[in-house]
Automatic annotation (TrEMBL):
UreD, UreF and UreG form a complex that acts as a GTP-hydrolysis-dependent molecular chaperone, activating the urease apoprotein by helping to assemble the nickel containing metallocenter of UreC. The UreE protein probably delivers the nickel. It holds the Pfam family UreD. Residues 1-39 are annotated as: Disordered. One of its GO terms (cellular component) is cytoplasm. GO terms for molecular function: nickel cation binding. This is Urease accessory protein UreD. Keywords: Chaperone, Cytoplasm, Nickel insertion.
Amino acid sequence: MAREGGGMSAGTQLDRPKAAFDPASPPTGTEETCGHPDGVRATARIRATYNGRVTTLPELRSDGPFHLRRMRTGGRAATVGVIGAMSAPLGGDRLALDITAEDRAELDVTTAAATLALRGPTTAPATYDVRLSVGEHACLRWLPKPLISAADSNLHQTCTVNLAATSQLVLREEQILGRANEKPGHLVSRIRVHRAGRLLLDQHTAYGDPEPGWDGPAVLDGHRAVGQLLVVDPELDLQRAPVLLRKGTKDGCAVLAPLAGGPALLATAVARTSSALRELLNEALGHAFGE
């Protein structure tokens, strides 16, 4: 793991404790995939607990390209920044980030810059798995900066989430398909969420060659920034119709709709640029909380 350089970079937008959190939900780990002998294997871990006064971080384990840094914060929440320590993900890498907010903990996890997926020494796909667990009455906000799919890259990205019945979650994903004036690589992404042991969301997307029709009028229609925002909160007001944001504009649009089977809202957005995408998702977040 001697690679150096900019790469996976990751900054922000943003009682007494019970026994260790053990959600009664089925395993949602990703399927095993074959890496490449030259690829990096790395798993970083964050674990947050509530000590009756504030959230603490008894486990903060950096690995490979993930350098985890505790950040100053006010109130009872803890904040962790993920900083890139080497170029990643490259073809053949197998990277994972495990984040757990135990009962009553409040945790924000951010990244310092965009994550750049590159081809690397092999055309074999890289994998980047984010695994989130949130306990009873706990809150986790996972708000990374965008993932950029550079030309000739091949990345399979997954985000698997286990929530307790009283968990709160804000999850944002932003994907930029290609850098300036270049075609995107091949990007396959999946979000899978269980709440209280039941499936809440299973979303699968794929962009770039050889996927058929990904840039057609029924999918992206020439847009190069895509994203989603998931809000899960037992106190959400779900008595609302879906909201279409910025309908008819050229810069992009988003739809915010409730999910069946849970107190959850999902926003899906497409835009011409990264900044326009962030504006759409921020607007959707405001709608979700009635701002």
